[in-house]
């Protein structure tokens, strides 16, 4: 299996073969999870620490379940009550944790690049659970697995990513991953919610929802990230839904078998109509949540293998 990474900090530095390796293993875990098969020995004896500096429901729960299904000792740190609140720097926190010798460190942080900084200071595998506007690699991977299982492939598809692209680390990771896998990516949204320099992303850009959804295979809606906005990016939520919210009429412009995705949490009636979100024939939103556990199991499995190999190599080096 081809997966050489020591950490999972983003999609940017992953090769397409590494993405395929991870998705293949995740696919196996997804089937095993459905059959109730546990893999308690994969991470047995290893310690996983989850550090979430931002609130999270799906991602944190998913990582915790994934670790426990693989047999890891899982610890969730309450960062709101941590020493960082007392003035400790992120680097000092990393050094303190490193002295405890964890094996896997899962980090979500509001500042872009913070997770990469942590990875430079610790001797364990670090997984990025979302850093600022930078990346959210496991979300992109679970989206990719969901698409591949629904469509039977992950290449040469037409995929529309719609909504608040400018503030979305999910969109950034998905653009990179889907591009590496030879898909045609469209960004659809108001100009105020598209990032600067978007024409350099290797994507097509549309400000009209119906035109952007024409004949696509996948419609990926994004949450309006109001907590990251510091100005008037939209006139009102009602107007936003009228122009960019996904409803049956807009979805009719996509292919008849197009699937609908959303990373969650959803704002029903703002980004997506509730009837579309709950449509079992089109929506794969719940499947995304399910695939999240499988992808995170696969990611930690592969990183733990590389970590074990690295530690064995160091031990042999000392012995020699």
Describe the structure.
The structure is a single chain. The chain has 320 residues and is α/β, with parallel strands linked by helices. It has helices at 16-34, 58-69, 90-99, 114-119, 137-151, 169-180, 209-212, 237-244, 248-251, 274-277, 285-319, and strands spanning 47-52, 73-77, 104-109, 125-131, 158-162, 184-188, 204-206, 218-221, 259-261. Strands 7-6-5-8-9 form a five-stranded parallel beta sheet. Strand 1 (47-52), helix 2 and strand 2 form a beta-alpha-beta unit. It is globular and about 60 Å long.
Short description:
This protein is an alpha/beta fold.
Properties at a glance:
320 residues, 9 strands, alpha/beta, 5-stranded parallel sheet, 40% helix, 14% strand, 4-stranded parallel sheet
Ordered list of secondary-structure elements with their pairings:
Layout: H1 16-34, E1 47-52, H2 58-69, E2 73-77, H3 90-99, E3 104-109, H4 114-119, E4 125-131, H5 137-151, E5 158-162, H6 169-180, E6 184-188, E7 204-206, H7 209-212, E8 218-221, H8 237-244, H9 248-251, E9 259-261, H10 274-277, H11 285-319
Helix pairs in contact: 1-5, 1-11, 2-11, 5-6, 5-11
Distance between the termini: 28 Å
- Biggest sheet strand order reads 7-6-5-8-9
Radius of gyration: 20 Å
Whole-number average pLDDT? 91
Number of helices: 11
Shape, principal axes of CA atoms = globular
Low-confidence stretches: none
Give the structural class: alpha/beta
Most strands sheet: 5 strands, parallel
| Total DSSP E strands | 9
Percent of residues in helices comes to 40-55%
N-to-C SSE string, H for helix and E for strand:
HEHEHEHEHEHEEHEHHEHH
Strand content bin? 5-15%
